[in-house]
User: Fold these one by one.
Assistant:
Number 1:
Amino acid sequence: MTATDSESRGVQTAPVAVDISHLTKTFGGLAAVDDVTISVPERRIHGILGPNGAGKTTVLNMVSGFVSADAGRIDVFGEDVTRMKPFQIARRGVARTYQNIRLFPGMTVLETVIAGAYLQRSSTILGAILLSPAERRERREMRDRAAELLEKVGVRADHGTLAETLSYGDQRRVEIARALATNPRVLLLDEPTAGMNDVESEAVGLLLRELRDLGLTLILIEHNMRLVEEFCESVSVMNSGAVLAQGEPTWCLEQDDVKEAYFGKRSDAARIATLRRARRGPGGA
């Protein structure tokens, strides 16, 4: 389905935050991403779905500058960032988390989140060396902001605890808090609820909705279909590097091409019914 088709399925137009146009990336002769076009409006929770190996993470890697595109263009709030380095894209308000959690070894929970805030520092090198009043004030503000973000994402552990010793779910929350410390306008999340139970996943979904309401644009890769249908306002479904469908989550997940990508050509009706029930939750009709 095209972007125009998706709009006809009830996805409303709005100013575009991230505009991906004809993006292509090849590794060793294999097209990991093949002519992908995705537009995500401002203040939208947009999901990128698809089976393993579909090219989802490669798309996020190109948007954040960690992988260079072979062809195509990426605009963030109207500015071409296709050839920019990761730190340049980050300075334009794009932050991300990763499929495999990347915390700094030996850092406490609070220090890990403070590290994300250094992108926004205004004090000078000399001020840092001399520990000037402005430097002390900025450090205090960074600590306060980090503590506030940890509370917002639901981390209850002592802030002096080593981040790497936390539970898997709490490590993911710390990673989200660190990304938020950069004061992003766009947040890219690669499987943010992986390893979480239903209650924890719901809490993350509510957090994403709150961030959206505060003005952020969120793009997430997610395999939890209940979360996708409840919290994503639009999705792009990928397979073998290409986009199969775009639009409202429920509509996209009902498309034959999407079912085939997940279950094969001879889709088992019982397995599809099980997936639908899982999306609706206990007692769903």
Number 2:
Amino acid sequence: FPKKTCLAQYTQHELDLVAAQLNNRPRKTLKFKTPKEIIERGVALTD
């Protein structure tokens, strides 16, 4: 979404889909791992 977009016009389902896309996108700063992979690994280490 562009900056300053009012998110109230979108359903929770639509916002969840966008969040999933962002969390599953590899990042150069994470050595091409996804944020989801990093979070899951961190949670696994604390169990």
